[in-house]
Amino acid sequence: MTGLSLPADLLDRLRGMESATSLALISAGLLTLVGVAAALRSTSGVWPTGAFVAASAVLLAAGLLARGRLAPVGSVVAIATISVFADATLELTPTVVWLFALVVPVVGLVHGARLGALAGALSAPALHWIETGVAVDPIDPQTPFGVLILVALGAAPAHLLTLARRRRDALDAQLARAEGLVRETERARASEEAARHQAIFMLARAAEARDGTTGIHIEHVRDLAAELARATGASGPEVQEIAWSAMLHDVGKLRVPDRVLLKPGSLDEEEWALIRQHPLWGEQLLEGDEGFGLARRIARWHHENWDGTGYPDGLRGDAIPAAARIVRVVDVFDALRSERPYKAAWPLERSLDELRRMRGAGLDPVLVDVFVELRDRA
Questions:
Q1: What is the dihedral of CA 104, 110, 116, 120, to 10 degrees?
Q2: In the CATH scheme, what is the homologous superfamily, with its name and number, of domain 211-377?
Q3: Is pLDDT larger for residue 14 or for residue 205?
Q4: Is 253 known to be catalytic?
Q5: Which of the following is catalytic: 217, 253, 302, 359?
């Protein structure tokens, strides 16, 4: 049932009752089949024998289904029923004695090993009496073996079932502990991820603040990088990693002197040399944490050009990591669209035209085409 939660012990009891019912019906059904054969051979008439068979089947099933304090009584009733039935129909169906071999283990499976052993102990003299007319024959060497066999039939299956249930319960407990550990691990991983995102955001904001901006640029780069990465077929986790790592692309600017970073006019050669160091400085600042591996690659290579004229390593084409190429496109676009101390914000069409002009030179041509198409659809 939807929304219904039952205690585990109640579920076990319900499963046990279902198994007991099945075993009781099977036992009663087998007794009925044997009884039908006996009724067909009976000279006293089918219906009297049939009524006796039906009553025996009902009494056997009732005995096997007795629960709680009535279970010992039910076990005795079940064995007594089989004994009377076997004695009454032995001449008509001699194989009826095999009912003991079924019912005795069933008593153990339904009521437990102790009552199964009791059923076996009661069945041994009853079976000996049915076959020989004597309940116990002290001089018969097979008597103790018969008792042991029937007791074992009653106790062994139930004992094995109990061991199996205990093993199942132990495995369920281990599974529950494992599931708890998985949940704890997932919560810890989520907390770690949140802490890393917070650290990324704070570092990126610090770098942007030194650049004389409000910090909105890093959020634009993050969102645009995610959009472009998704459009190129990146998976959900890859998109998220690229997006958050992109926020740290300019973290190396934390080491660039203010006189250079905030200079409103043109930079001289020495100042440009300092600016070109920020990719290397960014990579260095992010060392020591495996979670920043992609961010380090983006920080180092987001100023590489498709034609190999970029810095700091002069990488060309596909040698530039894909994430760095993505960030390069969106960084250029948002820089053109943003107001800076040395320029006004460019309109959309002029910015897209500039991306087209840089296509195949400074920027990955395929990524430019995808990005421009995204802007045209927006």
A1: -10
A2: Hypothetical protein af1432 (1.10.3210.10)
A3: 205
A4: yes
A5: 253
